[in-house]
Write a structure and sequence with these properties.
The complex is a heterodimer of chains A (284) and B (225). By secondary structure, chain A is of the alpha+beta class. Chain A is built from ten helices and four strands; from the N terminus they run ααβαβααβαβαααα. The longest helix of chain A has 43 residues. The radius of gyration of chain A is 31 Å and the shape is elongated. Classes of the chains: A alpha+beta (284), B alpha/beta (225).
Chain lengths: 284, 225
């Protein structure tokens, strides 16, 4: 192993400036990708929370009859996508309302009656918690007798889903861009290194060195550049997460996975770039 | 009858449509010292490159140490090259390391422990008369000394076949004589088979028992001495 590591060091020395340029480029590009991944995970977490909390509010007409209520309560639990149904009486609605807006606590006294309608809170099944399916359910509910209005968080959910799709698209595009750009930069560096060490490769092949021993020093260098870039990006992201947690009070979700992804991406990029650079010189 | 170490059977090799070797035959047996003579550009280097498996023939068979070159995989080529030593006119030494490191390099890369490789490299340098220059930088050596380092690098691996492509092409007469003497010694004392490509007819007298092959118009012919 000693001669291989020694060759690896010589290869690095032959192009140390370019090597650091590669590491810094890999660091910046992977950091960009890391930040983008964190944002995607954040939006995904937010979307998940929204989906978990979402329910449909069904407001009945003021003149709703007991028969209509009985019909509603019997038919709704059987509708596709409905997990549970909860009746909110006028009194409960007032309680919730004044809980949210304490300054309007005297409303009943002022009006002499509770101005809020009877309502139901419908919780959808887990696989129905999307803007499209919630919209379909809301449409079905609003067609039932006695129903005045159905409030569905679908629009909000749709906005969040749209935002998630956009962020995911940007992250995926960034991933491809970062992958290609980093691989290209490391590839160019190693190509220069391999070219400048062509004499060593030529002699090594001439004396019958096993091919893996000829390739390994350059592959070690490539992997090291990528891994260092990924490591620096991970360290920077860790720093950001500390600031976010201790100063802004925001926890970054899935940070461990993102750090592992950055390190693995750096390593993989270095490996691919060095293999490509070597194939130019070593393939017959 | 000694065994064939290197054999060309009807070998044809062309570059950019120009035939360099045309159905050429050659047989080199174990223990031979063979001069391959011919003017510049007739195919001596091509013959050497085919012999160390750097090229493959367009037609015909090249059999090196019993292996048909046309059927070898890349990793097998490397295995066979461990038994072949090659020296060139331009030495192909690594200028960023010492004389000893250059000679030990090949051994270390083929799995010999570093300490053992260095001991063997010192012995090989002593055989070519360069023991005292072992720690010098390659750039401080004369052309003749560089060529003897290249020979030491080839011989240290105790090759079955030593190929020399115009090894004296850049050397003065004294250095040339010393290089030829070193190769003759390797052949006569150590039994290394040598194929020595040169355009210099004067060298033939240095090794009276050597066979002579003449290469011309794509053919390789044996010359009676």
């Amino acid at each position: 192993m000693k001669p291989i590591l020694s060759e690896s060091l010589r290869a690095y020395r032959a192009n140390s400036l370019m090597a650091w340029f590669s590491v810094i480029s890999a660091f910046l590009l992977l950091l960009l990708f890391g930040i983008s991944t964190v944002i995607t995970l954040g939006v995904l977490g937010l979307l998940g929370q929204m989906r978990k909390d979402i329910s449909l509010e069904v407001f009945m007409v003021d003149s709703v009859s007991a028969a209509q209520i009985a019909h509603f309560e019997s038919i709704v639990p059987q509708l596709a996508g409905v997990q549970s149904i909860k009746h909110i009486s006028k009194e409960q609605a007032l309680e919730e309302f004044t809980g949210e807006f304490p300054e309007l606590g005297e409303i009943k006294g002022l009006l002499g009656e509770i101005p809020l309608p009877e309502s139901y809170r419908i919780t959808p099944k887990d696989n129905w918690r999307s803007a499209e399916l919630m919209g379909m359910l809301a449409k079905k509910l609003s067609s039932l007798p006695g129903v005045e209005e159905v409030y569905c968080g679908g629009e909000l959910l749709e906005g969040a889903e749209r935002a998630y799709r956009s962020v995911l698209f940007v992250t995926a595009a960034l991933f491809i861009l970062v992958f290609m750009a980093t691989a290209f930069i490391i590839f160019q560096t190693l190509r220069l290194t391999v070219t400048s060490r062509r004499d060593v490769i030529e002699v090594a092949l001439l004396v019958g060195a096993p091919l893996w021993k000829v390739r390994l020093p350059f592959i070690i260098d490539g992997c090291l550049y990528g891994f260092l870039g990924g490591g620096l990006a991970s360290a920077a992201l860790l720093g950001f997460s500390w600031i976010a947690a201790n100063i802004l009070g925001v926890a970054i979700p899935g940070l461990g996975w993102v750090l592992a992804l950055l390190l693995a991406s750096g390593l993989l990029l270095g490996l691919l770039a060095s293999r490509s650079a070597l194939s130019e010189v070593m393939e017959p | 009858m000694p065994q064939g170490v290197l054999e060309f059977q009807g070998v044809t090799k062309s570059y950019f449509g120009k035939d360099v070797l045309i159905s050429a035959d050659m047989l080199i047996r174990q223990g031979d010292f063979v001069f391959l003579i011919g003017p510049t550009g007739v195919g001596k280097t091509t013959t050497i490159r085919l012999s160390y498996l750097d090229e493959r023939p367009d037609r015909g068979r090249v059999i090196v140490l019993g292996h048909d070159a046309g059927r070898l995989k890349r990793r097998d080529v490397q295995m066979i090259r461990r038994k072949i030593g090659v020296i060139f006119q331009d030495f192909k030494l690594l200028t960023d390391r010492s004389v000893l490191d250059n000679v030990a390099f090949g051994l270390e890369l083929t799995g010999v422990r570093s300490q053992v490789a260095r001991e063997r490299a010192e012995e090989a340098l002593a055989e070519v008369g360069l023991a005292e220059r072992r720690n010098d930088d390659i750039q401080r050596l004369s052309g003749g000394e560089k060529q003897r380092v290249a020979i030491a690098r080839a011989l240290v691996r105790e090759p079955h076949l030593l190929l020399a492509d115009e090894p004296t092409g850049n050397l003065d007469p004294d250095a040339t004589a010393r290089v030829v003497e070193t190769l003759r010694y390797a052949n006569e004392v150590k039994g290394t088979t040598v194929l020595f490509a040169t355009h210099n007819h004067n060298l033939l007298e240095s090794v009276p028992r050597a066979r002579v092959l003449f290469i011309e118009k794509g053919k390789i012919e044996e010359v009676e001495r």
